[in-house]
Amino acid sequence: MPGKDLMHPCVDCKDAESLFTVRKRQLCRDCFIHFVGSKVNRHMSKYPRPQNLEDPCPQLLLPLSFGVSSSSLLRQLDADIQRQLNKPRPRKSYDLHILVVDPLSAAYDQSYEAVQKAFPMHTYSRVPFHSVFDYVPEMQDLMWEYAGPQFADDPSRPDQDRLAAFRAAITTATSQADVDSVLLTRLVVGFAQKAGCEAVLWGDSDSRLAAKTLAEVAKGRGAALTWRASDGMSPWGLRFEYPLRDWSKVELQQYKQACPELADIVVPDNPPSDNVLTKNLSIDELMMRYVLTQGEKYPGVMANVSRTANKLQASSSDDTPSCGLCGNIIGNVKGNSGLTASSQSGERQDTQFCYGCMRSRPDSIS
Amino acid sequence: MAPSTCFHCHQARAIIIRPKNRHKLCRACFLQIFEAEVHETITGARLFYPGERVAIGASGGKDSTVLAAVLKTLNERYNYGLDLCLLSIDEGIRGYRDDSLETVKRNAVQYDMPLEIVGYGELYGWTMDQVVEQIGKKGNCTYCGVFRRQALDRGAARLAIKHVVTGHNADDVAETVMMNMLRGDVPRLSRGTNIVTDSDASEIKRSKPLKYAYEKEIVLYAHHRQLDYFSTECIYSPEAFRGSARTLIKDLEKIRPSSILDIVKSGEDMAALVPQERSQGGKSRQAAAAAEDESAGGCGSQNGRSSGGEMAAMEKQLAANDAAESRETEIGHPTKSFRPTGKQVKVQTMGYCEKCGYISSNRICKACSLLEGLNRNRPKTAIEVSVGIEDEESSTTLRRQMERTHLTNS
Q1: Which of A164, A203, B61, B272 shows a CA-CA span of 20 to 30 A to A13?
Q2: Phi/psi at A107 (5° precision)
Q3: Tens-place pLDDT, residues A297-320
Q4: Would the pTM count as exceeding 0.90?
Q5: Cα–Cα distance for residue pair B62/B300, rounded to 1 Å
Q6: Do B335 and A304 touch (CB under 8 A)?
């Protein structure tokens, strides 16, 4: 067969120069994007294409942080929907609603404009972090209860200040990161419920999932892995899904390079904090560092961590009380007769918060 | 700054900061709280019954020495009515075990407990020194771990005792949890945190009364009670065994001291979340498998560590799996071949060793197959078996490769 004269032909199409080496395979740009896409699409194939045009398709919420991973997920799902619409009988199997949460410190104006221009067929919303008070009505009571009597909240002040004061009451880096992630989840869930979405598609890469899995375990939140790092039903009746669970952060960075339209959208990561002392890191940060450094040498082992978490099956009993703040169960999972939760963790038992949240509480010694 | 007073009694001067929660305590309160917590564990998990005869697996190291001291104290204080004795294994390691056995002998006198010593030499015809001479320093911990498990059972049987307690502490358990997460070993995850492993297959029940005790607090307890223990680590364990999980846990402890206990808590919860039908059939199977797990581990402070090349070996295998999968994609049915994402976990089946009758998931138990290799004076077996143990759930490809090695050799 007379082929093109290629130095390093792509191993898939054999018809173009390979530009990327992915999992020891040399691929051209198109085949690489297709490779990533095939695994994501496989995940999304659980949403069947509707029989009739007028059948409603499910609304799925995609929280977008403008990081490499969630931006790549949006790019890929957009392509998936385009592909469905290009078929002879064009119909979408799902609709995307993109949610951007502006953090307290920064605003993503440019990226927000760019993303709407690049992928115009979806619904976009943007809310500030402190709107958690609006989307989670019980937030104020939860905050008071959680922070304890020594925390003085002033409801007359703007929500932004109140949230900042609450976060400042939490002293350690670990607890702050932990509570932040809980609040963000609550905000996203609250928004998704109001917007009528039936699932949240998280953009976590496999590396992020591995780090999250190890961090949740280390923070006593192992029971929550069935939805915090695993595709499953969250405590709020919305499914949580992680379609990028097959791709590592490094691979998604390559994906970003392959997709020039992402260049204006992705906000570069904050440089790693110059904390040299392990002691001052948060557990989440430590685990992310661990996964990234170990992932260089043992990418497969790290990938295995999130796969392990995905094998856990949510407890079937509905009668266990769940944490008012994070939704995790209070006490032990059914069938666990361990003593850690009851006697050994000490302090207060009459609480509406779970083991993990109690550890991050402002006045707890840790 | 004025010296702080004890957080507990508010009287005496605090001289200890508890590693677990940074409470400042006086010596008396620390000892009392430590003992009270072990007592809580024992009563909470109903570990013993009155009149029970219990063997303490004693290595002479800090964990088992503290275990013996605390059990003796609690037995007297709360009238458990236990008949305690010490059971030691002599692996036959000169310069390490002979010295630590001297410690155990002194402990036997100090605590007024009978002592039984079981030697690898008499049981298997091989001391660890001889094993190392044959197979080298790498991978010998596998032999030691496998042999120890059976030796403890046989020692207990010799004493007609049905319950052996071991000095595993919270750090060990946390390490095992992290290790199993890294290895993706879901069946082990479902039982690694159990405080008791007993089974119908083995007569002997094992438990870990120090499961919730921090390693650092065990050291403090030993120090403040001036216990006589042996602190040298085994001379055959210079490699970075289990290094990854261990380093991680030490770092976590620096960030948040409670995290060791938090990992144990997560491990206990996750064990209950492992899909039931897959987490082994009945109790006997589960415990039998747990018995095998421990044997795959190493000794005292090294417990459960496996050889350093494990991560690399596993990485290789996972990469191979992945490569195979991507070749599959090449054939061109990626979208249609969607498998339902059911939660699937590999099942192990338990039986008995054809040679010695010990519980085993294979036809011949690990100890017997290791011995077979040693006796045939064929070092290659070492490679075969250590891979088998580290990657019990290894792919058939790997098995086939090993079988091929086997054939070429014989």
Answers
A1: A203
A2: -130, 145
A3: 888 888 889 998 988 888 766 677
A4: no
A5: 9
A6: no
